[in-house]
Amino acid sequence: MLDVEGIKERLRATEIDPFWAFADKTRKDTAYITHGYHRYPAKFIPQIVSHLVERYTKEGDLVADPFGGSGTTLVESKVMGRASVGVDINPVAVLIAKVKTQPLEPTELAVVFDSLKVKIGTYNGDSKIVMPKHERIDYWFKEKEKRELGIISQEISRIENQEYRDFFFCGFSNILKNCSIWLQKSNKPTRDFKKIPSSPIPTFYRQIRTMMNKNEQFYTLMRQKNYLDINCEIECRDARSLPTGDKSVSLIVTSPPYVTSYEYADLHQLSALWFQFTDNLNNFRKNFIGTTSGREWKNLFLNSVIAETTRKQLSLIDKKTSKEVAAYFCEMNQVFSEMKRVLKRRGKACIVIGNTNLKGVEILNAEVFVEQLQNLGFTISDIIKREIPSKNLPSTRDIKTGKFARLTDKNKTEVYPTEYILVMEEL
Ligand SMILES: C[S@@+](CC[C@H](N)C(=O)[O-])C[C@H]1O[C@@H](n2cnc3c(N)ncnc32)[C@H](O)[C@@H]1O
């Protein structure tokens, strides 16, 4: 077991392993089969999961993801013939993950789509449409698009078979942003009054045709491997209460939310409001780890000296941020404790995480997580450091100090952001 300085040194000394960058992978590779069904912030690339599943599991093992998101771990586990269980607090993520992990018989799916198109085509200007009533729907959508979207969703909701219904709702969810006045490419909910929204019906048909092609690839692959019946359980619930027994899981592969980074609740509000998963965004946000709202600040148990030091440093600069970070580390420690409960002896927890900076203070997420996990009884099995080779992301750093530099600085060099894969073993 390493002490605090030992943990810091271990992570500092870890060199970037080029194997894990998957720099040769194109968007097509990372969006293969069902991975490209729906955009999702901070989803990780499938190749990371498949290598970890291959390295750390054997036939019959169960894989889990407590922050399942759009289901990358679960899809890849199925491709490798492993049963899996995943949860996410976000019902939109759960819808996406369920659809992505469920291959549908392609010919039947085409029949359902044809019949849906016929029904959508029968609407005229006088047809009555039942739509979700919420001021935020009127805030985001113009009348014409709102009506067309209403026609589509009304007809999808009449499909009897839930798996097919969910497939079309997943596609519907992915077009909502384009059909609204949400500022394109923005991760903040901002309106763009100059935007010309995409026309819903043709956009929906295009989206479904793409998904149908990908479904067919997935279905064929699963049938060839005889994996169509591999079990995949997905529930909308908190990562601190997983729907699986003690010591039942062989491998966890997960990427947790970051503190005060993405507000997943806000980012998915178009789908969450349309599907009436919530009618109050403030309440909706509260259960997401890493958010800023509705937290209990007292008696937080961080289980980490590094986290306590960060909390103190931040409290000298900004008390609110210091409390938010403390709440985040406290809640992550609770998730790790639940992971320990479900993992088998010698089972591995692979956590994909990078370090961040808030108000000028380095937030050493990776170091804190290793310390917390060690304190809970895990040992380090492996620490991998990888570059995230995104064309949009290289940041400019000072060659000597490694700190962020301005584009005009002489000593600047461009580096890709890095993250760790912490492979921790349950003793
Ligand atoms: C980085 S994302 C995971 C992305 C995922 N690896 C993928 O490939 O799509 C983190 C996820 O944690 C979820 N989350 C936040 N708080 C949670 C909680 N208390 N319980 C379960 N999931 C939570 C968010 O909704 C988000 O989907």
Question: Can you describe what's shown?
Answer:
With 427 residues, the protein is an alpha/beta fold. Helix content is 42%, strand content 15%. It has helices at residues 4-13, 27-30, 46-56, 72-79, 91-100, 106-121, 135-140, 143-156, 162-175, 200-225, 264-267, 269-274, 281-285, 305-315, 319-342, 365-375; strands at residues 62-65, 83-88, 232-236, 249-254, 343-353, 356-358, 361-363, 378-387, 395-398, 412-415, 418-426. The strands form 3 sheets. It has a 7-stranded mixed sheet with strand order 3-2-1-4-5-11-8, sandwiched between helices. It has a two-stranded antiparallel ribbon with strand order 6-7. Strands 9-10 form a two-stranded antiparallel sheet. Strand 1 (62-65), helix 4 and strand 2 (83-88) form a beta-alpha-beta unit. Helix 5 (91-100) crosses helix 9 (162-175) and helix 15 packs across helix 16. The longest helix is centred in the middle third of the chain and has 26 residues, at 200-225. The chain starts with a helix and ends with a strand. S-adenosylmethionine binds next to strand 2.
Compact overview of the structure:
The protein is α/β, with parallel strands linked by helices. The chain contains 16 helices and 11 strands.
Keywords:
427 residues, alpha/beta, seven-stranded mixed beta sheet, two-stranded antiparallel ribbon, 16 helices, 42% helix, 15% strand, globular, binds S-adenosylmethionine
Strand elements, count:
11
Query: What distance separates the N and C termini?
Result: 12 Å
Q: Which range does the strand content fall in?
A: 15-25%
Query: Percentage of helical residues?
Result: 40-55%
